Amino acid sequence: MELHRFGDESLTATVSEAGAELHSLQDAAGSEWLWQAGPEWPRRAPLLFPVVGRLPGDVLRHQGRAHRMTQHGFARDRRFEWLRRDRAGCTLRLRDDEATRAAYPFPFTLDVTWAVADGVLSCTVLVSNPGAGLLPFSLGAHPAFAWPLPGASSAEGHTLSFPGSGLETLAARRLTGGLLNAAETIPLRCGALALLPALFERDAIVLPAFSGRRLHYAAPGGAALKIEWEGYGDLGLWSKPGAAFLCLEPWCGTAAPLGWDGEFMQKPDITHLAPGASRLFRWAVRPLPSPS
């Protein structure tokens, strides 16, 4: 497994060819902002494609055939090809092959570009359809950030806010067996969500058709992360109670709803890409260390 390290004077990132996954995000002081895997969850920031979440029975149904498709898809477990590596970042590519077509019978190209500039890490994903028919897909980011944030004395008192959204509540959905189920309204206090392990006792918080495009993850001592995204219309929030990470996940697509089990082309919240077309998705994060 090859890794590529890049960055500037304020921020350094490391990306792996395995899954085009971010492995590290360190500030100028060497503090690590990304969860470093562990027994609670062995990943760091997987790329979700061609599904986000789960399909019923882990089966993708297309034109009368059943294909094995496990949770969050296969891209996170595939080795990508390096297209570019330099001091500013890298670009990696995944194309369809015999193995992917057994699970997902569609031609595709997935280009992932990571870059650091002016203390901001960005991830741009270009999904392309080289085929003659529609390409149905979902795409998601799944970065796990440290909780507590660097410099914070404990996990207590951390919050999430959504600048510019004007939200007073979150219109959430919960999961049953990995499938989208019950609706839930989560109140915000002064526009912020108090982060408590109990929030994730029933798995992830899914925010379909989320109106915001920015969030602010902050610790009491002043350390914070600012995240923004383009192209993604859904958001996932996840942790495991007691684990030292918080996943902040811009998505395009969600898990299948409980009770649905149909043709993948007609899956609720699926995206269709026309033949020869491409679509761009981007998210970016700026770590803000606590004042010294």
CATH architecture tag: Distorted Sandwich
Q: Mind telling me the CATH class?
A: Mainly Beta
Shape by Cα distribution: globular
Q: Termini, distance in Å? A: 37 Å
**If you consult CATH, what is the topology?**
Beta-galactosidase, Chain A, domain 5
Helicity level? under 10%
Count structural domains: 1
Largest sheet: 9 strands, antiparallel
Average pLDDT, to the nearest integer? 96
* Percentage of residues in DSSP E strands: over 45%
Taken in chain order, the helices and strands follow as EEEEEEEEHEEEEEEEEEEEEEEEE
Short summary of the structure?
By secondary structure, this protein is mainly β. The protein has one helix at 98-103, and strands at 3-7, 11-16, 22-27, 47-48, 59-62, 65-68, 81-86, 89-95, 109-117, 120-128, 135-137, 139-141, 144-146, 159-161, 169-176, 179-187, 192-194, 205-207, 214-218, 224-230, 234-238, 245-252, 271-273, 278-288. It starts with a strand and ends with a strand.
